[in-house]
Write a structure and sequence with these properties.
- One of its GO terms (molecular function) is RNA binding.
- InterPro entries: NOL11, NOL11_N.
- Residues 1-323 form the Nucleolar protein 11 N-terminal domain.
- This protein has 536 residues and is of the alpha+beta class.
- Helices cover 26% and strands 29% of the residues.
- It contains eleven helices and 28 strands.
- Helix 5 (400-409) runs parallel beside helix 7 (429-438), helix 6 packs across helix 8 (441-455) and helix 7 crosses helix 9 (462-474).
Length: 536
């Protein structure tokens, strides 16, 4: 299944109203942040550090973009001037600018499509062509111009069955939303538009999932999620794929494509404060992963950069890394049900009562992740060790956040701790963050001691090695810099256990070579000496 990792703040926004936008950079894993109308910063998402920055006295009116075809950065100034520069340029003060007759909305580009100029009147044209003919606007027909009452809210490149289009999302003063599909090459496609209206219901969010089987996804105020094949062949809004209950559909939301088979949905949390960031599968329209946000922002804007979601939340630019895996249908059972009420109490805290409650929740269709949220929070608060063991008997898919809390709770109960340490971890970046937050060094040392003992046993499970790596990675600096005798002793014991395993593997490798010789009917030259003593 897909998974959202722990979100983090990339940078603060000094003035949100002056923030312009985000676009992909020339380097993989970097983004161009047009932080204000005269400040551009390149960030590396892996370490949240600035790669470089530029400033200008002229006012930018659209996000700065990088064009892979020309290997240049482009900026739009005052809506009618375009400048370009290379990565090594330090100051933008002396750049030459090309002035245009028509007002410009933005420039769009991708890895395999040269930059395209999007005018505010709805006309699009290759940037390279218009830079050479800026004083003479492109010759267009009346049907290529937007009606005066429509204003472009967003423009993006999409690929529909191998034909490249610019998707223009426009809005009227009456609140009507319209999607225009404009082919980049007029000879390969036909311009079309569709009004995103559905009688009696309000549009909550929408996006295009492009690729080999492109579709228009729309979410409405009644919670219905529709999919319409593109180019448009069926009646709007298309096929109903699911009912969305993971967010409050009566508040504005945002949908964005993630790969060929997934999309992400941001919206207000239902029946509570805050918001949810949810990854849904395209095939079933069901949530596969969700992350709770403390604050809901009804003006949220989102972008994607490789395996990262970048969004504006409040006064910060926030990054939420994600992973996309092949989805198993069995793991989606019950996932669209609202989360269990963690404030309700399990009536019977006996082993039989807990077992019965878990079985009942499974029969109601709740997935085990939600059952863990309901059961373990109460059991740990009540310090019910027997109940924890009963829950472990009946739940197999336990999220890392609960494994870590259970391991911390069981630090003084070696039997329970050994059982927990044999459960599989996903071990991603968010897991390391949870360990640093939940496990103090003293608790980590206790866990390392038990892990070391388990490594010395004959039957070593892979999960034990995963725990050893996780604990060492998260407390590496503390162990390295500490002069405490206990820390030194525990780490030395772990080192010795690992060394013993490495020596064993070397021995096994040499034995394997010997076995291969025997299989081929050969005898090695290093035969052991035979005693010549006779005992007759």
């Amino acid at each position: 299944m897909a998974k959202i990792l722990a979100p983090y703040a990339l940078c603060p926004l000094a003035e949100r109203k002056r923030f312009v936008g985000v676009s992909p950079d020339s380097e993989s894993g970097c983004v161009i942040v047009t932080l204000a109308r005269n400040i551009i910063i390149r960030y590396r998402l892996s370490n949240q550090k600035q790669v470089s920055s530029w400033s200008t006295k002229a006012m930018l009116s659209a996000p700065v973009i990088y064009d892979h075809a020309s290997k240049l950065y482009y900026g739009i100034f005052n809506s009618d001037e375009v400048s370009s520069w290379e990565e090594h340029v330090v100051s933008l003060g002396k750049l030459s600018k090309t002035k245009f007759i028509w007002l410009i909305h933005s420039i769009v580009s991708s890895d395999d499509i040269p930059a395209v100029l999007v005018y505010q009147n709805g006309v699009i044209s290759p940037l390279k062509t218009d830079l050479a003919n800026s004083k003479a606007p492109p010759e267009v027909k009346d049907d290529q111009l937007l009606p005066p009452e429509e204003n472009i809210k967003e423009a993006r490149l999409v690929s529909l069955a191998s034909v490249h289009y610019v998707a223009l999302y426009t809005a009227t003063e009456a609140g009507e939303t319209i999607l225009h599909l404009v082919p980049v090459d007029q000879d390969r496609g036909t311009r079309s538009f569709i009004k995103l209206n559905r009688d009696g219901f309000k549009l909550t969010a929408f996006t295009i999932l492009d690729g080999d089987s492109p579709v228009l996804i729309t979410l409405w105020s009644d919670g219905k999620l529709f999919s319409l094949s593109l180019p448009i062949k069926d009646l709007f809004p298309g096929k109903l794929i699911s009912m969305v209950s993971c967010i409050d559909v009566n508040h504005p939301a945002v949908i964005l494509q993630l790969g060929q088979e997934h999309f992400v949905l941001y919206g207000a949390a239902p029946n509570s404060e805050g918001a949810y960031l949810v990854i849904l599968g395209r095939q079933f329209g069901l949530p596969e992963s969700r992350a709770k946000m403390k604050v809901y922002d009804n003006e949220c804007r989102m972008w994607t950069c490789r395996n990262n979601i970048v969004m504006v939340l409040g006064g910060h630019l926030v990054v939420a890394p994600f992973r996309l895996n092949t989805v198993k249908l069995a793991s989606l059972i019950g996932v669209d049900k609202t989360a269990l009420n963690t404030n309700s109490s399990i009536m019977d805290n006996t082993v039989e009562g807990i077992t019965s409650s878990i079985i009942q929740m499974k029969e109601e269709g709740h997935i085990e992740h939600f059952i863990c949220d309901s059961v373990f929070s109460e059991l740990l608060e009540a310090k019910n060790t027997e109940g924890v063991n009963a829950a472990l008997d009946n739940i197999s898919d336990i999220p890392d956040k609960w494994l870590i809390q259970l391991a911390n709770y069981a630090a003084e109960d070696e039997g329970l701790l050994r059982r927990i340490l044999k459960l599989p971890l996903s071990g991603d970046a968010s897991t390391q963050t949870l360990v640093r937050q939940k496990l103090m060094l003293s608790s980590a040392l206790k866990l390392i001691s038990v892990v070391t003992e388990m490594l010395k046993e004959d039957d070593v499970d892979k999960c034990i090695l995963d725990w050893a790596c996780l604990l060492c990675d998260t407390h590496y600096l503390q162990c390295l810099l500490s002069k405490d005798d206990q820390v030194i002793s525990v780490t030395r014991d772990l080192h010795d256990a690992v060394e013993e395993h490495i020596e064993s593997m070397v021995t096994y490798r040499s034995l394997l070579a010997e076995i291969n010789y025997f299989k081929r009917g050969k005898v090695t030259s290093n035969t052991p000496p035979v005693s010549s003593h006779s005992y007759v």
